[in-house]
Design a protein that fits this description.
This protein has helices spanning about 1-5, 15-20, 25-30, 35-55, 65-80, 80-95, 95-115, 125-145, 155-180. It is mostly helical.
Length: about 180
């Protein structure tokens, strides 16, 4: 919460303990620094978002349907918690080096989650393309969140789904053209 008011750089431990309603001593019993507190909050937020997305996606058949359901759940989760969305997609970019590396690892996990499963017939998009898609998705979300539009993120579902599916559809089309030309 303090990050939403002050931003990562300007947030002090004093701001955190004041908003949390705990003593400075209690804070330091749990965290050795503001950075470690941020890391814990970031990891918790990523885990909660991942669970929401995974539960929704796991109920669907077919990669595109799982992708759509997971995207919808993720956007709704973020819209329901704008402060957490701000931490995950805005402040993580301003955080200290270890937290920034964690953000990059999160993008790698997102890219892997976006990738069609092996054997689905849709795994024609490279790992690097999926990493670029994950980065673009995160960048777009951070811009919307920074603009104060977190509550409206679910409205972006269709456009974002089209963005995420486009490379797979294009690659499948190209593969079909190659097969047809070989006949």
């Amino acid at each position: 919460m303090a990050l939403a008011y002050h931003g990562y750089e300007d947030t002090k431990v004093t701001d955190i303990v004041e908003l949390a309603g705990v003593s400075r001593a209690t804070f330091y019993e749990r965290f050795a620094s503001k950075e470690l507190c941020f890391d814990a909050a970031y990891e918790d937020g990523v885990e909660r978002l991942s669970v929401a997305v995974g539960e929704a996606a796991g109920c669907e058949r077919g990669w595109a349907n799982r992708l759509s359901a997971g995207l919808s759940a993720g956007l709704s989760f973020l819209a329901g918690s704008p402060v957490l969305a701000h931490l995950l997609f805005v402040e993580s970019l301003a955080a200290s080096r270890p937290a920034r590396f964690e953000h990059e690892r999160s993008l790698e996990r997102l890219a892997e989650a976006l990738r069609p499963p092996l054997g689905s017939g849709e795994e024609v998009v490279s790992k690097e393309t999926m990493r670029i898609l994950a980065g673009g998705l995160a960048s777009h979300l951070s811009g919307r969140i920074l603009a104060g539009e977190a509550e409206r993120l679910p409205d972006l579902h269709d456009a974002l789904l089209q963005y995420l599916l486009a490379p797979s559809l294009a690659a499948l089309h190209t593969a079909d053209e190659r097969r047809a030309a070989a006949l």
